[in-house]
Amino acid sequence: MPLKGIRLGDLGVKVGDHGNDTGFMILDNVRIPREYMLNKFKSVSKEGVFSVTKDVDPRIVYMTMISTRAMMVLTAGARLA
């Protein structure tokens, strides 16, 4: 069972990709140690100040998301074939 303040769930049925289980996790007033956070481009200091650590062109981040989605479509097409 999840700890207090953590909600877990399933995203439901996926078309053509039943082999992979996809879910979600919602954290409500849960403290996460700073060293466990995925902070490649942005971070929060010990004092709670948010800052951008690297100046990254948003088009690069968007392209990564689009190429990942394209690979998912290609993989789903291959599985359906």
Quickly give the structural class: alpha+beta
Instruction: Report the span from N to C terminus.
Output: 39 Å
Number-wise, the strands total 4
| Low-pLDDT residue spans | none
Write down the domain tally: 1
Please provide a written account of the structure.
With 81 residues, the protein is α+β, with helices and mostly antiparallel strands. The protein has one domain. It has 1 helix and 4 strands; from the N terminus they run ββββα. The protein has one helix at residues 58-80, and strands at 6-10, 23-27, 42-44, 50-52. The strands form 2 sheets. It has a two-stranded antiparallel sheet with strand order 1-2. Strand 3 (42-44) and strand 4 (50-52) form a beta hairpin. It is flat and about 55 Å long. The model has no long low-confidence stretch (mean pLDDT 85).
Summarize the structure.
This protein is an alpha+beta fold and 81 residues long. It has one helix and four strands, in the order E-E-E-E-H.
List the helices and strands and how they pair.
Blueprint: E1 6-10, E2 23-27, E3 42-44, E4 50-52, H1 58-80
Antiparallel strand pairs: 1-2, 3-4
Structure characteristics:
alpha+beta; 1 helix; two-stranded antiparallel ribbon; two-stranded antiparallel sheet; 4 strands; 28% helix; flat; 81 residues
